[in-house]
Design brief:
This protein is of the alpha/beta class and 203 residues long. It has a single domain, classed as 3-Layer(aba) Sandwich (Rossmann fold). 29% of the residues lie in helices and 23% in strands. It has a 7-stranded mixed β-sheet with strand order 5-2-1-6-7-11-10, sandwiched between helices. It has a two-stranded antiparallel sheet with strand order 3-4. It is globular and about 50 Å long. The two termini are 23 Å apart.
């Protein structure tokens, strides 16, 4: 069974954690939530209120964590989802988070990044030459990282799919699932074993 990793932490956007989690589980995919520590995290709900210049923040769901960043072996996962919220603002400073994201970019595995999610690959020096959607306040960060900000609901750039925030879930998850199914169908070649005579077996 393929496995998908969701990378988040305290103050991750509640819907951007829960919807990909349950949508993937619906497809029979094993999903692990990774955070700096293996303990429940507190998600948040960002919404807009008349008279405020930016979003407000309310407490969301408490979400169990399956694995700490330091214990993640990214080669075991077929794809990565990076939800937004405030979590990416501090997760980008975590060297283990950058290590994990770098693997998925380097191996060209499907990566889904929402809202503030691109801040992590930006901090890891991975966005150069890539197109990505994000929350509009992240546009300068994306530009400084050498990426191109795109104001759209489901931006596909190679194996990367991105969206601006949770209202983009329908298009975002449709494209992410398409990339994931293609990656699963392609599979990972098994390493060849050496035969008794020291030659590689025929395949």
């Amino acid at each position: 069974m393929p496995k998908v990793l969701i990378m988040t932490g305290d103050a991750g956007e509640s819907l951007e954690v829960m919807y990909p989690l349950q949508r993937l589980q619906e497809e029979g995919i094993e999903v692990h939530i990774a955070a700096p520590e293996r303990r429940p995290i507190q998600t948040v709900v960002h919404d807009f209120v008349e008279g405020f210049d930016t979003y407000t923040e309310k407490l969301g769901y408490r979400v169990p964590v399956d694995i700490a960043f330091v214990d993640v072996r990214p080669e075991e996962y077929a794809a990565l989802v990076i939800p937004g919220g405030r979590a990416p603002e501090y997760l980008r400073n975590n060297p283990e988070a950058r290590r994990i994201v770098a693997h998925f970019y380097a191996e060209e595995k499907p990566v889904g990044q929402l809202c503030h999610g691109p801040l992590i690959p930006a901090a890891a020096g991975l966005l150069k030459g890539h197109r990505t959607a994000a929350y509009n306040a992240c546009e300068p960060d994306i530009a400084m990282a050498g990426g191109t900000f795109v104001n759209s609901d489901a931006v596909v750039d190679g194996q990367i799919v991105s969206g601006r925030a949770w209202p983009d879930h329908p298009g975002f998850m449709r494209e992410f699932m398409r990339l994931l199914r293609a990656a699963i169908a392609k599979g990972t070649p098994e390493p060849a074993t050496v035969g008794a005579a020291g030659s590689q077996p025929e395949r």
